[in-house]
Amino acid sequence: MAFGVTKSELNAWKSKCAQGEIAFLTHYWLDPRFSGVKTVTKVGCCDVDRLQAWCRANGLDPAYIHYREQYPHYDLIGKKQVEILKKEELIDHLQRFKLI
C-alpha cells in the first residue's frame, strides 16, 4: 500500500517515464514481506532498454524490474535506496521521508 505522495507528483513521475526519462518517486509503503521497510523509491522509465542500463550502471539486477504495470519501474528499498538517492542528489526525498 502506497501513501504520502500527491496526485501531481505521481502524474509528473508518469509523464517523465512516458517521455523515456529516468524518473524517481519516493513514497511511504507498507508490505508485510519487508518488515521494517517504510518507504520505497520507484525508478521508472518507459524506455525499457534505458531502465535496464540504469539498473546495471547502479549494480542492480534488471530482472527485478516490474513490467506488469503501464510504467516499468525498479523498486529501491533499504540501504540501496538511500545510496542511490544520495548519488542522484535527491536530498529532498531523503529529508521528506526521514531517510537521513
From TrEMBL:
It comes from Paenibacillus aestuarii. It comes from the Bacteria. This is YneQ.
